[in-house]
Design brief:
Helices cover 35% and strands 20% of the residues. The chain has 411 residues and is α/β, with parallel strands linked by helices. The protein has two domains: 89 residues, Urease, subunit C, domain 1, CATH 2.30.40; 309 residues, TIM Barrel (Alpha-Beta Barrel), CATH 3.20.20.140. The structure holds zinc ion.
Length: 411
Amino acid sequence: MDIIIRKARIWGRDGLFDIGIEHGKIIEISEKIAGSADKEINADGRLVTPSFIDPHLHLDKVYTYHMAPNPDGTLYGAIYSLWQVKKKYTIEDIKKRASRVIRSALVYGTTHIRTHVDVDTIGGLTPLKALLEIKKEFKDVVDIQVVAFPQEGILRDPGSEELMWKAMELGADVVGGMPHSEWTDDDMKRHVDIIFEIAKEYGKPIDAHVDETDDPYSRSIEYFALKTFREGLSGKVTADHVCALSAYNDYHAAKVIDLLKQANVNIITNPETNIVIEGRLDTYPKRRGLTRVKELWKAGVNVSFGQDCVQDAFYPYGKADRLLTAWALALMVQMTTPEEIEAVMNMATYNAAKIFGIENNYGVDVGKNADLVIIDTDNVLDAIRLQPARLWVIRNGDIVAQSKYTHDLYL
Ligand SMILES: [Zn+2]
């Protein structure tokens, strides 16, 4: 075998197990694997989980905060502020910034990233081309899916529809969208129709920013979900943010959640950015801005969460650590029972795998891809609470990162 991990505490199983890895796959899990491997790792009772998946990250914008801070903290404050930076984007500059975040993500155990890149008449196709190059360059260590994202709208940015089609021709993996950003409901519907038309033409999934606002009358999610259902694309469509769902009255929200469940639309919340961007026009009490995560999860909707931003006009913080974002999410949506804590961990892993379309190959089981992380703790609660070192990160059966945090305490 290539690697044997000894005495692993596999998330979801009782007891300690050895994990045998060969040719990038998990080929054996048992209490004691006989013989030896090229590389032996002693997990010594530590937690082993599948490696993490970040399904929502804007890699073209990372580390632009100092070039274009947000004057008022709102979503549109950030969008407008970035125009000056986008105009000057170069492929090399984007690649340099994106690589820094990918390296951090790897250190923290993330081996799969879905990235939204702006496709509009300001930056053109430069971000997309940069991320398609990055995807190739990092393919042995990180799986990257590139979403063509019309950040400036489609109808309110004439010319961007043509760029969206070109983006798919160049090799984008997913069709993005932002219907609520159009000026009228008619345009919102046309926006949704266009992205579905593109997705159907190229046979690609859809992953759109939907109703990222506190406005209770922002209701593009209904048309978006119904379209998913009627076009037979259930399971292949994802709605991000969906903040307005928290602003609807409870009766209307219940109806929308039912529709999302029936249409099998995935939901991605972005807790760190949403709590900072939303609620800016509120006085007190201020809304948290996140969608109804707990209610969606309880209704059986597939929910995951993303980092969204690292040091850009939307969010000056962020470090691409799934466990830190998991902790933030758990606080913000009050997920504190043992069952809820497990659910948060599922959102960083298995639920995201469904969105990524890799659920059949994902998990710590025989026959699955050897994409694993050994965390310096023995339980999920402490993994989220303390965000301990990811001692070993394994991708396709290769060790791609190792960390150890040490302290000296003088008592
Ligand atoms: Zn986003």
